[in-house]
Structure formats: C-alpha cells, structure tokens
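debug: dumping io for the single-chain case to check the tokenizer round-trip. Nothing else runs in this session.
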Amino acid sequence: MLKSEITVLLFLILEEKAKLKSFNAGRYVQQNNYKSFQPNFINREWELENMELQHLLGKADRELGRLDMYSDYIPNIDLFIRMHVLKEATQSSKIEGTQTNMEDALLDREDIAPEKRDDWEEVQNYVEAMNDAIEKLNTLPFSGRLARETHKILLQGVRGEHKQPGEFRQSQNWIGGASIDDAVFIPPIHATIGELIGDMEKFAHNDAHFFPELLKIALIHYQFETIHPFLDGNGRVGRLLITLYLVSKGILKKPVLYLSDFFERNRTLYYDNLMVVREKNDLLQWLKFFLVGVIETAQSSIDTFDKTLQLQREVDEKIQSLGRRAANAQKVVHYLYQRPVINVAIVARVAEISSTPAYKLIADLERLEIIKEMTGAKRGRTYLFTSYVNLFT
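debug: decoded output
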C-alpha cells in the first residue's frame, strides 16, 4: 500500500461515524470524588456489518498471509525475528517515554552511559518478556496469567519494579494528568479487574460465535488498555498481547508482526481512537485504524525480509573475494545476523582465531563496507553491521 493510500484510509477513519450494531462501551461510575469508567463485557456475539471494515479485513488477512509465508522459506528466519523483536521493544518503550534507539539497544550494559541505562534495561526486559511469552505459549494458553507472567519480567529491576510486577493492581490508577483530579481517563476500580479479565479470556477462546481473529485481538487490545489492570506497564503488555494472540491462534507461525512502530508514528490517533470507543461507543473507528496498522506493518515487514535476503546475497558475494579468509568471515557474518555489533574479542571467539588475524579480518570486513566503526575510539573499538541494522530502523 502506498503512503498516500494509508493517509486516505486514516482520514476515512476519522470521518466514519457508523457504529457496530448495539455496541455500548460501558459507563462512568461515581467513586467518591472521581468517576471511573466501567467497561461492559465483550464476550458476546458480534455482527460484522460494515462493508468498508470487511474490505480492510480482507486486505489485512491477505497481507498477513503473505508475511506468514516467509516463515516457511526464509532460511534462519529466527535470526531476523530477533531484530524485529528489538525494534518492537524500542518502539513500544518509546511510546511510554523511553529513549533508547536500536544502536544503543544492541550494545552491552557496560557500553551504555550510566544516565541511559534505565532506558536500556527497560528495552532489554521487553525483549526478554516477549521471548519468554512466546516460549510459554507451548504450555500456557493466551490468558490473564500469561499477561501477568510477562508483566513480571517487563518490570524486573527497572522503574516500576515496586508497582506489583506480575500482579493485577489493588488500587486505583489513572491515565494522563498529574493526579487523579485532572486525569484524562480513569480505568475501572481494582475490585472488578478479575471478572473483566476473565470475560476477556472467554472472548479470546470463544468458538461458539464466529468473529474474525484480527478483529478479536483488536477488541481485546482495546479492552485490555481500558481495564488497565497493572499499576505500570499496561501499554507495553497490551501491545505484546497482539503478537502473542496471533501466534497462539496459529495465524502466524512465527512472531513476525509488531504494531508498535505504527502506533508510535500515529501516536495521537492511537490514543484518540481508543478514547473515542469509550466516549462515543464508536468501536468501528478503532477497528479500522487497527486493520490499517496490520496492513501497513505486514507490508513493511515483507519489504524488510526481501531486502534482508538481497543483503545476504550481496554480502556473500563480497566475502568470496577474501579467498582463504572467506570461511572465517562467513562465521563472523552469521554472528552479525544474530547480533550486529562486534569487536576484536568477539571476532576472535567466533572465528576461533587469535587477536592478530581477528584485527585483519575486521579490516577486511570494514574495507568491504560490511561493518562500520561506531565509537570513534582508538582502543576498544566497536563495529556495527550498518546496512543490516538500517533495514529495521
């Protein structure tokens, strides 16, 4: 899809006033000196009646199917998924105010400036939380428990570590504003979280009433963000749940779709569309925005995979010019696809050579413009697989 087409679709979303039949988001409930929003249950039969939504749904399904095919025929796709996860971690955390970029996230902790380490650790936790959750799907269904265990990893040892990691909140929280008195939105009281999450789980696994899976997870994401069940980290967990749901339902064989970049680039629309559901019962606007995100993100991911394959071919051709050193260079490049930052010690270990030939091998890779020095230092130099990282930034 061209950027102009995506822009048109986003404008259509803003103009569309139609609602899904009989949808009511919930009600505001007086709680002493403030009103909290009490969402209605979502585990019910839904009717898909809007033709524009059906058109977007069909296109999103097709693009997601194309993306999923890459899981079958791209060699070593898990190497590239790691970079997708890292990009998701930096973008999702960026929405919450974290400033770590991809290049920083690839470095070791000791190479990060002390003032940047809190942000760096939050991104690393996100990567660990996603990888752990994907692994847990082998034994644990998509559920509130999965969300809690993911949340526990997300908040370990970082800002928010004292805000009940892995546990649903036991007090009132709010969104926006310096205090609850000027909050933009106040989620439901904590006493109702259990039944609301239980209803969301039932909806996720309800096979009695058909509702397209992409619309299901769009609705689940909205409901989760509205419940806001944790004291901190709700946005990051809610965005993780999108990918986890698609994998758990077999829609994606591998976790290759991440929407945080789309949400970050359209941050105002993202928040506004969630609020419009609560304030105006306009679920259609949110569903269409979500599907546009799926379409654009799937197309972007397909383009990235295509360019990665092209880059592999180009790098392989360059390496062949190294003659006897090509085998060792290939080992280093294979490592770079997993972690595109190296130094002399890493090269020596990966290629199983001493430091002197390791320096020469780095010089070869730098001359071939496969890697580029990123610190500007004379000693302890670090090199980045720039052309590869650029595909994900």
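debug: round-trip ok. The first helix runs from residue 3 to 15.
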